[in-house]
Amino acid sequence: MELIPHVIDGAYTESANGARFDSVDPWTRRPWARVAAGGPEDAARSVTAARRAFDEGPWPRMGRAERGGLLHRLADLIVEHARELALADREGGNFSREFFTEPKAVMMAVSDEP
Question: CB 3.0-4.6 Å disulfide test: which of 7, 10, 23, 97 passes with 33?
Answer without folding.
Answer: 23
